[in-house]
Amino acid sequence: MNAAVMEAVADKVAYENNKLHKRLCRLVGQAIGDFNMIEDGDKVMVCLSGGKDSYALLDILMTLRERAPIKFELVAVNLDQKQPNFPAEILPAYLEKLGIPFHIENQDTYSIVKRLIPEGKTTCSLCSRLRRGILYRVADELKCNKIALGHHRDDILETFFLNMFFGGKLKGMPAKLVSDDGKHMVIRPMAYVKEADTTRYAEVKGFPIIPCDLCGSQENLQRKQIKNMMREWDKKHPGRCENIFSSLSTVVPSHLMDRDMFGFVDLKTDGVPNPLGDIAFDEEPCSTPTTGLGTITLQRE
Where is this motif: PP-loop motif (predicted)? Predict the structure, then answer.
C-alpha cells in the first residue's frame, strides 16, 4: 500500500471517528435536554466502573460541559469493592491524567456478597444493592445533587424485556428518576446511545477497560438471552429495536389494560370522536396509513 492510499485510509478513519464523537455528543445532549437532566449549578457525580460505557459517559459529559451555556461540575467516583485481582491503580492514573476531580471509595462488599450468596449463584443483584447504598452516601459526602450512570439504549431495552418476559410488568429503566432514599436525582444521559457506538468509541479512545467478571460471578443468563435476541433482530429486522425503543416514550394508556392508569371501570360513551382512533374490529394494527383518505362510504349489498 503506497503512501497516498495509506493517507486516504487514515483520513477516512479520522472522519468516521469524528462523526462518532459528534453523534454521541448530540444524542447525550438531546437526552439531557429532553429530560432536563442537568441544570445550572448542578454537581454531578459520574459513576465510573472501568467499563466502556462509564468511560464514554465521562468523556462526553466533559466535552458538553465545555460547550454548555450553563455551569455544572463533574466528579468521577469509583467504588473499589475489593474484588480479587482488581487493578486499583488504573482508574486513579487515568483520572489524574484527565485532570478531573475524582474519589475512590474503598468498601469490601466482595466479602459480604461471598458470605451471603451460595457458591455458583449469581451475585450481581446483591452486589448492585450494596453498591447503590454506598454511592448514595458518597454523593451526600461530596455534595452532589445528581448521580449519572452509564446505561445506554440497549440496557434500557434489555431491562424492558426482562421485566415483561420474567416479571410480568411493562417496566423499563427510566432516563431520570429520584433515588431510593428520596434525596438524589439519578440520570442516564446515554439513554439514546446504542451499545455498538460505545463499544467502538472505547476502541477509538483507547479507554483502559477493567473487566466486570473479576468477582467470578456467572453471567446473568436471562439478560444474555435478551441481548442475543436483540442482536438477531438487528441482523434480520433492521429498525425493530429502534421502533420498540420509540414506543417506550409513546404510550397510549387507553389501549393497554392497566386499570390504575386509565379509568376503564368508569368509561362511558359521550358521542365525542376519539382522536387516537379505534381498532376494535381489526385483527392487528393496520400497516398502511389511512389518514388523509377522506370519508370512505361502504355500500350495503
Answer: 49-54
Residue 92, phi then psi, degrees to nearest 5: -55, -40
For residue 25, the model assigns a pLDDT of 97
Per-residue pLDDT, 219: 56
Q: Supply the pTM of this predicted model.
A: 0.85
pLDDT in tens, 164-198: 999 999 999 999 999 877 888 999 999 999 999 99
The string of DSSP codes covering the chain is --HHHHHHHHHHHHHHHHHHHHHHHHHHHHHHHHTT---TT-EEEEE--SSHHHHHHHHHHHHHHHH-SS--EEEEEEEE---TT--TTHHHHHHHHHT--EEEEE--HHHHHHHHSPTTS--HHHHHHHHHHHHHHHHHHTT-SEEE----HHHHHHHHHHHHHHH-------SEEE-TTSS-EEE-TTTT--HHHHHHHHHHHT-----S-TT-PPP-HHHHHHHHHHHHHHHHSTTHHHHHHHHTTS--GGGS--TTTS--TT----S---TT---TT-SS--SS--TTS---PPPP-
For residue 276, give the C-alpha cell.
Answer: 387516537
Q: Hey, CA dihedral for 276, 281, 286, 289, is it positive or negative?
A: negative
User: Is 286 annotated among the ligand-binding residues?
Assistant: no
Give me the amino acid identity at 298: L
Q: Which residue has the cell 454531578?
A: 44
Q: Please identify every stretch of the chain with a pLDDT value under 70, giving residue numbers as ranges.
A: 1, 5, 9, 114, 116-127, 213-220, 275-301
At 86 the pLDDT is 84
